[in-house]
From TrEMBL:
Species this protein is from: Hungatella effluvii
Gene coding for it: nth
Cofactor binding, per record: Binds 1 [4Fe-4S] cluster.
Protein name: Endonuclease III
Reaction catalysed by this enzyme: 2'-deoxyribonucleotide-(2'-deoxyribose 5'-phosphate)-2'-deoxyribonucleotide-DNA = a 3'-end 2'-deoxyribonucleotide-(2,3-dehydro-2,3-deoxyribose 5'-phosphate)-DNA + a 5'-end 5'-phospho-2'-deoxyribonucleoside-DNA + H(+)
Domain (HhH-GPD) ranges: 47-194
Amino acid sequence: MAKRETKAELKARVDHVLAALDQEYGTEYVCYLNHETPWQLLIAVIMSAQCTDARVNIVTADLFKKYDSLEKFANADLKELENDIHSIGFYHMKAKNIISCCRDLVTRFGGEVPGTIEELTSLAGVGRKTANVIRGNIYNEPSIVVDTHVKRISRKLGFAKAEDPEKIEMELMKVLPKEHWILWNIQIITLGRSICFARSPKCKECFLREYCPSAALH
């Protein structure tokens, strides 16, 4: 039976992991979804659910030219918008949510994207994950985004145990220093896309190997 890690040992391991991530990937805030305005990012994030950022960026390249204002999205024809975004999957629900969300932004928030979890999650198609992307990228508000990469790798590292993304978010908030919350998502996505794959992680090539309890299993 493995010896249980003390709080001091966990903190030391977290510090090592964060230092290694910073050294490998840098500390620049990067957003993988192309956008020029806060409302464009919000729409792109709504579209990105169960879809790759690369695919969303292909679609929004034309979409944001056609609908170049929040008002145009708010007044969009549902069937036409569905056709415009049909290649991203779940486009029926996403088109409906985008129109509803943009109408609320225009009527309730004066055309501005709000900055609180409560206000953001009151919008159609916006859950905690989407809200935290906005808070981190637009308002530079310390927030942890739990996507599939963050969920999988945080659990592999032993920094979280829960299955539910919201519970994982709360676990990570206790483990990670606040100044690293936004970076965690950026760096872990990069790690998940290049080394720590879901099906066949390249543990032998991973620079976090000595700090990861799961590495010994591969």
